[in-house]
Design a protein that fits this description.
alpha+beta, Helicase, Ruva Protein, domain 3, 11 strands
Length: 289
């Protein structure tokens, strides 16, 4: 599943191509793409028609377009702000296309813009979706419960560390809890734990606040490095809006490196399963205390 850096790469592409443009038509081609919309596909299509994209935003693994009605004499309330929320799921892609582009058998929805471009939502496994609805404090209501992520300038790292320490459970489980700190998935959880030298099964309540703050700071560093390389791609399913893959997978220190030498001490990395998810770590650098 795309994690924070990958979704941020997509958001930046949407920001560059959509902001300031008006949606002239919206089409939802697969019911699963609208499964969380009370009125289904027709509600999404009707709600988006004629709206102008004012911004592209993200929190954690979710990104959205902020929308406004700039049409003179429109029947819509002029100050009502809506959002088109996009969840990429396991295989979702938001792609910028020109009319006449060769279509995809996995095209689930698309927008037509006033400059002639189209924005495709391609999703092979159909776990992703679109949702249109109101915004609360700049965040779509559907994801208002999601915590701030590691790249949010308003994140209080000290408060997040205290919240981690208050939970007497494995630190890896807590990093994947999107209501504590959002945007961290299996890949980046392994990477930041390796960077901070913390065992994935370590009970968070027994880790010092200083080390937990250091863990979160490591996560920020790892994600910024991933952003610089366009995110992590293992196959063709994760790509940016122009169809290009990220290259951070070449720089991973822990994830997917079972049996390979630790790049810090040379010890063979191990793999264990926590909550049904694989975790990769160095048994020497990341001792369980």
């Amino acid at each position: 599943m795309p994690e924070l850096p990958e979704v941020e790469v997509v958001r930046r592409g949407l920001d560059a191509n959509l902001v300031g443009h008006r949606i002239t038509a919206a089409h939802v081609l697969h019911p699963r793409a609208a499964r969380n919309q009370p009125g289904g596909a027709p509600e999404i299509e009707t709600s988006l028609d004629g709206l102008t994209v004012t911004a592209a935003r993200r929190r954690g693994k979710f990104c959205w377009l902020l929308l406004a009605d700039t049409t003179p004499g429109s029947h819509r309330a002029p100050h009502t702000e809506l959002a088109l929320l996009v969840h990429l799921g396991m295989s979702g892609q938001m792609l910028v296309k020109t009319p006449g582009a060769e279509t995809s058998p996995h095209l689930r929805a698309y927008l037509e813009l006033d400059d002639g471009k189209q924005i495709w939502f391609v999703d092979q496994r159909t776990f992703g979706y679109w949702w249109v609805g109101p915004v609360r404090d700049g965040v779509p209501e559907r994801v208002a419960h999601i915590a701030m992520d590691l790249l949010d300038q308003n994140l209080d790292v000290h408060a997040a560390a205290r919240l981690l320490k208050s939970r007497p459970t494995e630190i890896k489980r807590l990093l994947l809890n999107q209501e504590i700190v959002s945007g961290i998935g299996n890949i980046y959880a392994d990477e930041m734990l390796w960077e901070a030298g913390i065992h994935p099964m370590q009970n968070a309540s027994r880790v010092s606040l200083n080390r937990l703050r250091g863990l979160l700071m490591s996560g920020i560093e790892v994600m910024n490095r991933a952003l610089a390389e366009g995110g992590t791609s293992f196959d063709s399913l994760y790509i940016n809006v122009n169809g290009n893959s990220g290259y951070f997978s070449r720089s991973l220190q822990a994830y997917g490196r079972t049996g390979k030498p630790c790049l810090r001490c040379g010890t063979a990395l191990r793999r264990i399963v926590i909550g049904g998810r694989s975790s990769h770590f160095c048994p020497r650098c990341q001792r369980r205390r």
